[in-house]
Amino acid sequence: MNDKRLISSGSTFEAVAGYSRAVVEGAYVHVAGTTGFDYAAMTIDPDATAQTHQCFRNIASALEQAGSSLDDVVRVRYFLTDAALFEQVAPVFGKYFGAARPAATAIVCGLVDARMKIEIEVTALRRAS
């Protein structure tokens, strides 16, 4: 039985690019790469630390809609536009994942919008109903 459920942030870009903020299937919640945009206002702070906090707010919202939370995250991938940002934003990672301590990977790469400094993708377990 397929209990796949799609979750949207309300961003118009999801429809344009054909993806969901999160997909719930079975015991897992897969959250798409999430940036520091405030999706309601479609604005982004130029500061990497502020973007990182907004990433986590966006991810937490998707996880909540899926019946999960940041404490249920088992895998995280951080995409940074500059390796020098890691030292600045790593304490923010620790703030949000101090309890979950997921398996983590940090990757330095380009992102699709020059204003973006970080993108975060997570996989979480769904809490038992």
Main β-sheet: number of strands, strand sense, barrel status?
6 strands, mixed
Say how many strands there are. Answer: 8
User: Which series of helices and strands comes N to C?
Assistant: EHEEEEHEHEE
Whole-angstrom Rg = 14 Å
Backbone structural class: alpha+beta
Q: What is the overall pLDDT average?
A: 94
Shape: globular
Structure description:
There is one protein chain. This protein is of the alpha+beta class and 129 residues long. 29% of the residues lie in helices and 32% in strands. The strands form 2 sheets. Strands 1-2-3-8-6-7 form a 6-stranded mixed beta sheet, with helices on one face. The radius of gyration is 14 Å and the shape is globular. The chain starts with a strand and ends with a strand. The mean pLDDT is 94.
In short:
The protein has 129 residues and is of the alpha+beta class. The protein has helices at 12-17, 48-65, 85-97, and strands spanning 5-7, 22-25, 28-35, 37-38, 43-44, 73-80, 103-108, 118-125. Helix 2 packs parallel to helix 3.
Label this structure with key terms.
129 residues; alpha+beta; 6-stranded mixed beta sheet; 3 helices; 32% strand
